[in-house]
Request: fold
Amino acid sequence: MNANQLKGNLELILLSILEHGEMYGLAITKEVQHKTNGYFNFSIGSLYPALHRLEQAGFIAGEFRPAPLGGGLVKFYRISLSGLKELKVRQAEFEAFALALKSLWMPSSST
Amino acid sequence: MDALEQYLNAATRWLFGKRKHQVRTELKGNIQERLLEFQLGGYSPDEGLAAALHEFGSAKKISLQLLEVHTMPFVYKSSVAIGAVFGAVILAVTSSAAPLAVTNLAPLPECSTTPIESLNSVIRCAFPGTWVRYSQLKQELESQGGAALLENQTLRLRFAGDAKEIQFQIKNPEVLVLPGGYPEVQYHSFISFEKDGDTFISIALTVSQIAKQSGLAMRLRGWQNPVLQVGQTELTLGTAENTYLGVFLYTQGLGQALHQILPDRGTNTPNGRLPSLTYLDTQKESRASYLYEQHEIELDSENGVYAVVLQDPKDGRFLYTIGKAENRSLTTYLPSQKIVFVKSFEQILGQATLLEQNVIILRLTGNLNRDTFQIISPKTPSSTRIAR
Reply:
């Protein structure tokens, strides 16, 4: 996938994943790769700045807890109410954008 | 300074104070978790760390992105508050190599586990129940014809029936104190600590060293507070107050055993191998990462500890999870699609195209260094149902 496309939609991807339950960074990456059959294949480290941006905006909230395998402390993120609202807005925006773009590729009905 | 510390320093280079500690802790925890997964897949610590850091990507790139998220907004706010001229100075400083001088000590990051020591601004945390108390270990071994001696941070153990002495260092890594008086918070990387005039040593370290050095058969019995048998010596791990779950030791033993019979996969990592084994945790927080659902498998065999091994059709990796069967039923987390039970690894490996999830059920014998598992098969392929 085009890197700019991924960068532009990373927050939407993260909110979409966290809508289904709380998760920590490493698990989010695996979930994204699994759900998209590896289509979104990004380096794990690039996730954290985006997660922190969403946290600062109040769309998600993080809490430190021991990691499942005992590697140390990891931050579990969960989506907030305003995050859910934001997700719906961004989903609608994305769908409208994709639809508009698609219409440019369709044969025009007026000709 | 090791590769992980170098990576963390580079990634958090432009962060300061409490924020730096928090981001560092988060990154470190995630990297260590991935490292453990690689290790459970048979990698050495060095190989696992190299592979994990490769996956996390460029530390420099992360540091610049974090700068944009955390430090620049702060600098911008400061510059508005104290004047454009001083702000410009701060901006100039942040864009040079020298870090900002820190004059006030931020609140210490929370220690969500049990703090065991707070000394020279360093907090040490310990997960209850994952440590063995030296005085108790010594007493137990001596009462069973063995011996233990802790001297100069070297632990020496002798088990009845084995003339060979096991010895290993329990010295912790050096604590790094950051410039500006900020403490470095250390969590699980400590392998020992002192408390109440006694020394506590990591169970995982102790068991792995015994397995490595002793020629005696090692066996684990039970799930919660399991009994570890080394030759004729028996040690109970965990206490009523601080429970120890055997899952990690079972996993360690199985991971090593499986690694010997499974092939390496691919050539995409710095050391030329993809992980052939990944441990699927059964905890609620992590199981979602594989989109698995709770399954109940009815077993045609006795209760005990079982492993479910499957191959991911997407990348050929072997995934495994471990659970305790009760009433001949094993609750585990597996893919929601159709599951096909097979009786041998050859059946999986021989397939050209993996369209379905082929699952192998293993019964763990509890032996940690020989005959770790037996391959069993459920009575019928339909004997599993998804628990809703």
Notes: The longest strand of chain A covers residues 60-66. The radius of gyration of chain A is 16 Å. The longest helix of chain A spans residues 81-105.
